[in-house]
């Protein structure tokens, strides 16, 4: 009985610190033409360490990070990265403006989003300096974040299972 309790407590502890938010662009509308993404981004608060993720039909759309000129004019000005998987998790490691557009012409039909990332409200450097100093690629960080979410979910399920057994 007591070891079951210990498993549940440990699982709860492991789930706790996974605080990074995944902001899904367009929510259930995803990344598609003729959506006003200013309305979506205006309702989100982004912090350093969060993710922005784009869900779309692979091959039809894509994601390019550009600068403000590229965003305003739907061009590749200041291009800083591109993603094409159809389910792209993009880390937001800096407190600044980020600009994303669709790179195949659909930017002109509204597929552009600008966001402001704020410094972490609770000082991030006190909870693990590894991330801040990391030079790993965006893909690696995103993969790590996704893995973290999955293992957290698994541990959560384990906690529920342990609790269920405890009540039998
Ligand atoms: C999106 O909505 C905002 C707020 O209503 C508005 O100012 C802006 O012009 C809209 N953008 C487009 C492309 O319609
Ligand atoms: C946030 O969403 C609500 C409804 O979902 C909407 O009424 C409101 O205008 C949005 N706020 C901004 C800043 O876009
Ligand atoms: C791009 O947009 C900016 C405004 O942000 C404007 O000043 C500039 O002339 C535009 N450039 C082109 C090539 O359209
Ligand atoms: C964006 O990048 C282009 C090309 O590097 C540059 O000419 C332009 O000044 C940049 N715009 C801003 C707002 O930094
Ligand atoms: C997209 O990014 C890859 C590296 O991730 C780069 O090799 C490629 O040139 C980029 N494509 C464009 C069109 O910028
Ligand atoms: C966090 O605290 C360190 C010093 O402990 C400071 O150098 C850093 O700027 C702080 N970061 C933020 C986001 O407040």
TrEMBL record:
The keyword Signal applies. Residues 119-141 are annotated as: Disordered. It holds the Pfam family Cu_bind_like. Residues 21-119 form the Phytocyanin domain. Gene3D superfamilies: Cupredoxins - blue copper proteins. GO terms for molecular function: electron transfer activity. Residues 1-20 form the signal peptide. Keywords: Disulfide bond, Glycoprotein, Signal. Residues 124-141 have a biased composition (Low complexity). GO terms for cellular component: plasma membrane. Belongs to the early nodulin-like (ENODL) family. May act as a carbohydrate transporter. This is Phytocyanin domain-containing protein.
